[in-house]
Amino acid sequence: MSIEKTPGRKRRGAGRVTLNTVAKHAGVSAITVSRYFNQPEQVSPERRERIAAAVNELGYVPNLVAGGLASARGKIVAMVIPNISGPIFADTLQGFSDTLSLHGYQLLLASSYFSLEQEENAVRAFLGWSPAALVLTSHYHSAGTEKMIAEADIPVIETWDYQPEREPVQIGFSHYEVGVTAVRYLHGKGYRRIAFVQNSMVGDLSAQERCDGYAATLLALELEPWVFTPDAGRAPFEAGKQAMDALMSEALRPDAIIFANDNLAAGGLLAGKRAGLNIPEDCAVFGFGDYPFAEMLLPSLSTIKPPALEIGVLAATRVLESLGRLPVEDDVSRLNLLACRVIERESA
């Protein structure tokens, strides 16, 4: 994948929406708005609806930091990721936290579980504590989150993605290009009937981008895309097994399968071996993530390794630069677009 330099950018909101602004917009007193957040049971349903509408329309974030504690803002950086327990984000979190801590900052973390609504709730809660900066994962957000980050008067960074036309600083890579790279690799190895298995976790829109890159590349090669979606909510290993069993039961079977992540790929690989398949002779298996277990499988898993650690370190560096804790590079062009790597092992 190509490397591109883009200028770093700083942004500040035009002014914070206050509790009094919400009260005026909703036609209630400021005390009633305060009760809405602190003692909602004491506010009538009709007024709660009016206040909720005003909060969403204005992108209001309640300031939970008391005046005497406002200095706390300078030491906390908030971050929302899709899955705290997911191994794919572990290096990003470690690199981000380690880099921040060198300069006296601490990480405040939440998981969205691929839910735009849960991400919005986390962002609203975090901004209420007035963090020094906010870091999100990908460019997919609810309208409410978009409103809040547009109004935020702190640095906002989006990671694990690269959409340079957006206002927040982007640090990551193109998921679409990951799909392109996977197909080109397998096609170059002689595979032609290449299937793609979606994530069983509902809301993983970045995996859909990888699927889009996969499909477009196959069509350009005059080959038919073949996408399988496991049952929603299935555990990854079980979803991978379901996909492998279903695809290999077809009269004309795929000769290679790209899985949306290594967890799914491991489930598929193990199911294939249990069914007596020779991998990769009968069917190649290819993943995404380069999880720690990938090289320990038998056969070891071929995959694409994202720059997880680099994303964390660079995101923290950009935050610290924006806060004046690190000098800004003389060259305003920044290497915020990072490269993924194909890890060639035994399964493909």
Automatic annotation (TrEMBL):
<keyword id="KW-0805">Transcription regulation</keyword>
<dbReference type="GO" id="GO:0003700">
    <property type="term" value="F:DNA-binding transcription factor activity"/>
</dbReference>
<dbReference type="GO" id="GO:0000976">
    <property type="term" value="F:transcription cis-regulatory region binding"/>
</dbReference>
<dbReference type="InterPro" id="IPR028082">
    <property type="entry name" value="Peripla_BP_I"/>
</dbReference>
<keyword id="KW-0804">Transcription</keyword>
<dbReference type="InterPro" id="IPR000843">
    <property type="entry name" value="HTH_LacI"/>
</dbReference>
<dbReference type="Pfam" id="PF13377">
    <property type="entry name" value="Peripla_BP_3"/>
</dbReference>
<keyword id="KW-0238">DNA-binding</keyword>
<dbReference type="InterPro" id="IPR010982">
    <property type="entry name" value="Lambda_DNA-bd_dom_sf"/>
</dbReference>
<feature type="domain" description="HTH lacI-type">
    <location>
        <begin position="17"/>
        <end position="71"/>
    </location>
</feature>
<protein>
    <submittedName>
        <fullName>LacI family transcriptional regulator</fullName>
    </submittedName>
</protein>
<dbReference type="Pfam" id="PF00356">
    <property type="entry name" value="LacI"/>
</dbReference>
<dbReference type="InterPro" id="IPR046335">
    <property type="entry name" value="LacI/GalR-like_sensor"/>
</dbReference>
